Description:
Elements: H1 2-12, E1 18-19, E2 35-43, H2 59-83, E3 88-91, E4 117-118, E5 123-124, H3 147-155, E6 161-164, H4 179-195, E7 202-204, H5 213-218, E8 223-226, E9 231-232, E10 236-239, E11 242-246, E12 249-250, H6 259-276, E13 279-284, H7 290-306, E14 311-314, H8 316-323
Parallel strand pairs: 1-9, 2-3, 2-13, 2-14, 3-6, 7-8, 8-11, 12-13
Antiparallel strand pairs: 4-5, 10-11
Helix pairs in contact: 2-7, 6-7
Amino acid sequence: MAHSILSKINFSLGRNPKIERRKDWRQFVPEPYSAVVMIQADFEMAWAWRWSKRFHGRMREVLEKAHRERQNIPQILDLCDRYKIPVTWATVGHLLLDCCRRENGMLHRHIPRIPEFENEFWKFNGKDWFEHDPGTDVQRDPEWYAPDLVKDILKRETKHEIGCHTFSHIDCRDEVCPPELFRAELCECKKLAKEFGIELKSFVHPGHTIGNLKVLAEEGFTNYRTDYRNILGYPKEQKKCFWELPSTMEIGYRQEWSMEYHIKRYQKIIDRAVKAHSVCVLWFHPSMCEKFLYDVLPAILAHIDQSRAVIWPTTSGEFTDWLNR
């Protein structure tokens, strides 16, 4: 409760997200707009949670969370169409598969294995990184495969972007993930994306495990999101045509906040972006609870839509294409 109160105080004082101001803001916000708003979704299904400390190996809860994400995504897409707001779907590459099979008892044997590790969110101490992968298909185990949802995203009236969230939701830190493993994951994602007619440009490191940026740039990605702190600011060009997009805030449900406060908070962030002439990067997990999906998310998207004269709602790939023009 104390943390929630402090969060509200910092928000009301304009400390969270921190507002960065620049006189040359027009370099990052095209005419005739006053702000840019990007929304990213971390599209992960069961892959994000199998080594999660939160679930401690309770696979039933992992699968329930993945099932909720599968149910929510079509409804999120309906909302995006209603308000004409695009989303960058940072997608775990394995979800592009409709099936996978064991070869000599091993799944995805061409991808190097990550060694045991522990970070803030996960602890991997299993025998094989892919040991939870059922090695079946989307009909039998829809929590691990989602080509149908990817196709739904691509066919929508709203022009969304499919981004990359690694092939198997790995820890990308340099001290954990060797470059050859990271490159293998990216190459597998790019190969599968090409079968859908997708060119991958945008990347999100799972669990904010920032690393292997040299490989990421070499593989042709144009942008990646960071989450060092919440900020209404501007992208940073780390290499030529390769941009860091600092996160503004996660769109998420907090039990101690009312629905009215959730709505007011996120709408106020958008208004602050317009006033500060800044770039706003919001992100969410599609496995959000029903109350948030039905009560809060529509209000956020409607607010962006109503402010369309001064806001450019865009995808990360489209925005960095504009920056690299």
